[in-house]
Amino acid sequence: MVAALLSAGLSAALVATILLPIQSVLPELLDAPRDATAWAVTITLLTNAIATPIAGKLGDMYGRRRVLLSLLALQLVGAVTAALAATVGQLIVGRGLQGVAMGAIPLGIAIMRDRLPARSLGPSIGFMSATIGLGGALGLPLAGFVTMHLDWHALFWISGAMSLTSILLILWLVPESPVRARGALDVLGGVLLAGALTALLLGITQGQAWGWVSWPTLGALAGGSIVLGVWVAWELRVSNPIADLRVAFRPTVLLTNLTSTALSFAVFAGNIIFPQLLAAPAGRGMGAGLSLEATGLVLLAGSVALVVASPIAGRLLLWAGPRMMLCLGGVISVAAYVLALCAGGSALLLTVSSILVGLAAGTSYAAMPTLIMRAVPITDTGAANGLNALMRAIGTTLAAASIGTVYATGAVSIAGQSVPSDPAFTLTIVLALGAGAIGAIIALMIPGGGRRHTGEAASAHGRA
């Protein structure tokens, strides 16, 4: 059962990065303007952010396995649509359908809480959370290899095959959850949340292209903030909200979500910073001058560290508690970026830094859902984990937008190649370091020692 759920999580996480290596050549491949092809990446962020919390609530109400299968079916349809795409519009539609599948990860965690014994829950959650980082780390080299040797549409046939495999495994191995939340679906709440997130993420992701002080950017951010405020007011009034904000505002849940945003920024920043640092020309400061193949091996080492750390962190949760493990993840990320600042172009030190970021991801991602599940009733597990996944997605989006802006404005030309300048590299590393430090500090503020068993917590909520 765990293997089937992990396959769904990995399939969903892979979607976010498989198009990045060919994003620069999509205008030529599709004979479309660059602003239009950029939506093939942006649309997955939007549909992911909108669908994840809503899918979690639907899973709580109508069955987590049923909703998980529905998400994977949409991902499969999206993969086939993108694989057959001859125009940019068809590709955007396919990518939008693929993006909804990121809700598979919080739903998988909720199913684990329903079905697994307490002694197995921590490591399994660690593995499931790790698929977020692992999918991103594996997506880049996989996409690069496929596009070098096959037609670029093959990326989506591979993605579709993974979705179909996950569907078959879940049908075979995963039972339906017996837990149901009562009440009617909050349709207006879902519409308001979708509108607010769409406007805010558009402002963040398109700010560099539109101009950060342009009317479209400011209008999107202001409009999204207003709609978000209306959504909060509505959710506090309705009897069965998309997200129970009274629970979400509990100190444990609120501080865990804030920590998740900060640490997701710190971890995802490594996916952008290290490939650029490792490939930048050597002998000019911070660049290591590695080939694409060597850079891929370094990134693979970080992925291996993430995979190894996740189940170990799951076991350590029972001893140290999720709060301290979450704080430890922040501390490790700070150490990684301090080392990167001091690397001076050393490929060895940058490799160690990348491995430390992988360890930070494996450690912190295992702790986040455990803290959430300790603080919410079992009937709200899907929605609460969906909201936590949304906060993590916001962290990664902020990292991509801010680092992309710094690199674009701080680029220099070396031997005809545009690369970030050393001050730009330094600033982005400092941003990631600061996010890791903020995450560690907020984690220390989470109430409680964090040692209570997840299974005991679930039983306590059930009795209450």
Q: What does this protein look like?
A:
- The protein is globular, with a radius of gyration of 21 Å.
- It is built from 20 helices and two strands.
- Helix 5 packs antiparallel against helix 7 and helix 17 packs antiparallel against helix 18.
- The chain has three domains: about 180 residues, MFS general substrate transporter like domains (Growth Hormone, Chain: A); about 45 residues; about 210 residues, Up-down Bundle (Growth Hormone, Chain: A).
- The longest helix has about 30 residues.
- With about 475 residues, it is mostly helical.
- It starts with a helix and ends with a helix.
Helix and strand arrangement:
Elements: H1 2-14, H2 26-30, H3 34-37, H4 39-62, H5 64-83, H6 88-99, H7 104-115, H8 118-149, H9 154-173, H10 187-205, H11 207-210, H12 215-235, H13 245-248, H14 251-279, H15 292-320, H16 322-342, H17 347-375, H18 381-409, E1 411-414, E2 417-420, H19 422-444, H20 454-463
Antiparallel strand pairs: 1-2
Helix pairs in contact: 1-7, 1-8, 1-9, 4-5, 4-6, 4-10, 4-18, 5-6, 5-7, 5-9, 7-8, 7-18, 8-15, 8-17, 10-12, 14-15, 14-16, 14-17, 14-18, 14-19, 15-16, 15-17, 16-17, 16-19, 17-18, 18-19
Summarize the structure.
This protein is mainly α and 464 residues long. The protein is built from 20 helices and two strands.
Low-confidence stretches: 449-464
- Portion in helices: over 70%
Which descriptor suits the 3D outline? Answer: globular
Number of helices: 20
CATH class of the largest domain: Mainly Alpha
**Strand order of the main beta sheet, please?**
1-2
Please name the CATH topology of the largest domain.
Growth Hormone, Chain: A
How many beta-strand elements?
2
The portion of residues forming beta strands comes to under 5%
| Sequence of secondary-structure elements | HHHHHHHHHHHHHHHHHHEEHH
Largest sheet: 2 strands, antiparallel
Average pLDDT, rounded to a whole number, is 84
Assign the CATH superfamily of the largest domain: MFS general substrate transporter like domains
- Find the structural class using helix and strand composition: mainly alpha
**Beginning-to-end CA distance, first to last residue:** 29 Å
Tally the structural domains.
3
